[in-house]
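As a warm-up, study this chain.
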Amino acid sequence: MRLDRFPHLEVDAPKAPPTGEEIAAIETAVGVKLPPELLGFLAAANGGKLDYTFEVPTESRPFPLCFYSLYSTRHPYPGRSPAGLILHELEVERRLKGLRPGLLPIAADGGTSVLYVDLAPERHGRIVAYVEGLPDWDGTPEGCFIDLAPSLDEYLAALYLNTVEESKRGG
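Now compare it with the structure written out below.
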């Protein structure tokens, strides 16, 4: 499914849009209303796959990140793990990483790096990532939080397919 506002992006296998009850439960958990751009994104891409790359500028070279596994508002079938459910991931992230208030996990890279929308009043809507230790990047083996974009729309606009044919990749 193509994203209307971002025709260069295609989401694979999205679930149905969130219900009002699901949105209310997330807003209660984070303590704020979700911004319209996040609501629109969830309506189109809820729990799908978004296999595109974002480049983080670093001192040595741009570093590619790919948060392809989008979290869902939909509960899994009975007997299945709640992994990938936004509310479950929020609880896990708070427990494991001691998340500061306002961070809402929305996607993962298939490992332990996670993408968040920052809903804290002074940072409302910024896109932040927890990136697991990258010694080649910054010299530290520990993970860290980094700002990626001022808004979800700007993050989505910057995504590109990581293929050999892309001119960004010298193809």
